[in-house]
Specification:
Elements (H helix, E strand, L loop, with lengths): L5 E8 L12 H10 L3 E6 L4 E7 L3 H16 L5 E5 H9 L13 E5 L3 H7 L11 E4 L3 E5 L8 H10 L5 E3 H15 L2
Antiparallel strand pairs: 1-3, 1-4, 2-3, 5-7, 5-8, 6-7
């Protein structure tokens, strides 16, 4: 592989290892992505966050390849969202809620995968969420859930508006993934 054509990507798998459904060992997931021709494959936590490098390609095409391989090789069906490292950096840089979100595990980031997703969520920003906060960036919706994610009306509204076409991560996890992407870019 020509290293000048290499790019860092992150794959976020929806609903992996939550409860008893869609169980997959991270070692198996790393192997699967490696078998697709990607290198420097690393997983973050046990919930389907994978950082890897590969030839420049459209993130959607990579997501489709991973989704198909999951079904064929592991028997798991899961929506996969892939972001290139610069797209992930944009999500991180645009977060306007960092001044109010005092606990990053309660700051949710919903990745917007289609242009229409932003239009689905924007009307929700005009609502009064009490102590919660909701903001929309170019590639993500950010939700501050001070009482917890399961208690969050704003997170539930965003989830309902976007349906199963999105995935979300708390800010702590997203920052860990972003740090790995940044480290890969400096190698």
């Amino acid at each position: 592989m020509n290293t000048t054509d290499m790019r860092c990507y992150v794959a976020l798998l929806r609903g992996i290892n939550v409860g008893r459904a869609k169980r997959i060992a991270m070692a198996d997931l790393r192997t699967l992505i490696g078998e697709l021709g990607f290198v420097e494959v690393k997983s973050v936590l046990n919930s389907g966050n994978v950082v890897f490098q590969g030839q420049r390609a459209q993130p959607k095409a990579i997501a489709t390849r991973i989704e198909e391989a999951l079904v064929m090789k592991v028997g798991v069906t899961a929506r996969v969202t892939v972001l290139a490292s610069d797209e992930l950096a944009e999500v991180v840089d645009e977060n306007p809620l960092l001044d109010v979100a005092t606990e990053h595990s309660r700051l949710m980031t919903f990745i917007l995968t289609k242009p229409k997703d932003r239009a689905l969520v924007e009307p929700l920003t005009a609502m009064d969420w009490g102590r919660e906060a909701l903001a929309v960036g170019t590639r993500a919706a950010y939700v501050w859930c001070p009482e917890g994610i399961l208690e969050s009306r704003a997170a539930a509204a965003v989830g309902k508006a976007l349906g199963d076409g999105t995935t979300s991560r708390n800010w702590s996890t997203l920052c860990k993934v972003h740090t790995l992407c940044q480290a890969a870019a400096t190698v």
